[in-house]
Every structure is written in C-alpha cells, then in structure tokens.
Amino acid sequence: MDSTLTLAGHHAWRLGQGGTPACLSGGCDSGSYAGLDLDLIQITATVFSGSSFSAVTFRQASWTGCTFQSCRFSACDFDKLAVANCVFTGCSFSQSSFSDSRFSGCRFWQCSWDGLNFDAAHWRDVALLDCSCTRITGERVRGEEVEFTGSHFEQLEFNNARINE
Domain spans of the chain? Predict the structure, then answer.
C-alpha cells in the first residue's frame, strides 16, 4: 500500500473516523503531510527522501532502522517518540517538542535543529555530525556516548542535564 494512504488511514483511525492503526515497513516516501495525528505509529526500515511534515503529531510512535534524507519537520510533536538505529542526512527540524523521547544508535549528519525542546529526553549512542543547532532547550536530558563532532550550537539551554558523564 502507498505510504500516503497508510498514513492517512492511521490519521483517520486516530480521529475515530475509520481507518486502521498503521505500521510502515520497508517502503519509500517523498510526500508532504500537514496536521496529521500519527500518534502510536510504528515505522520500520522505511526510506524518506524529501518528505515534509508540518504540525504532525508522532506521540508515543516508534521509528526503527529508517533513513531520512533532506526531510523537513516543522511544528511537530514528538513527545515520547522512540527512535532506534535511524540515519538523518540534511534534514531540518524546527519548532518541535521531543519531551521524554528516546534515541539510540542514531546519526544526524548536516542537519539543522531550530527551536527544539528535549525535556526528559534520553540519547544513547547518538551522533550529531556537522549539524547546526539553534535555540535548543531541555530539562533533565540524559545522554551516553553522544558525539557532537563539527556541530555548532547557539542558545543551548540544558538544565540538570547529564551527557557523557
């Protein structure tokens, strides 16, 4: 099934308008999505290239083994998102919340982060390589084996954080 139809069906299910809970696996996507409720969705081994997500919710969703190339995420809610073994290349994230999210085995390369919140987020074996990060906040952020090689941060405000201790 086309990923656009799968995501639309999941959105309809979340709104109580039919549809079905979705799990994307092994597909490719380059669509543009706005205002969808994709809470609880499971996305596995899927390639996103040039996809755009605006005001989409991914609360309590999970992404595993996915590749994101030149994707845009704006005003999204990623609270309690679990991300494992994903690669993000040339992606931009803006004005979004990652509260209580979990990242493990993930790589961000030449990505842009602007206006993101990571309250109570946990990172393990995460690399931000040659990324540009502005206005990043978070309370109680935890991280082990986090690498920031070549990345630039402006207005980073982590309170009570423990990273690479």
Answer: 23-163
Say if residue 55's pLDDT is above 70.
Answer: yes
- How far from the centroid of its chain's Cα atoms is residue 115's Cα? 14
> Contact, 94 vs 74, CB < 8 A?
yes
CATH number belonging to domain 23-163 = 2.160.20.80
Residues 6+ apart with CB under 8 A from 121: 98, 99, 100, 101, 102, 103, 138, 141, 142
pLDDT grade, residue 104 (50/70/90)?
A: very high
Separation of alpha carbons 45 and 98, rounded Å: 21
The mean pLDDT value for 76-95 works out to 98
pLDDT(29) > 80: no
Q: Considering only CA atoms, which of 113, 123, 126 is closest in space to residue 162?
A: 123
Q: Report how far residue 20's alpha carbon sits from residue 41's, in angstroms, rounded to the nearest whole number.
A: 10
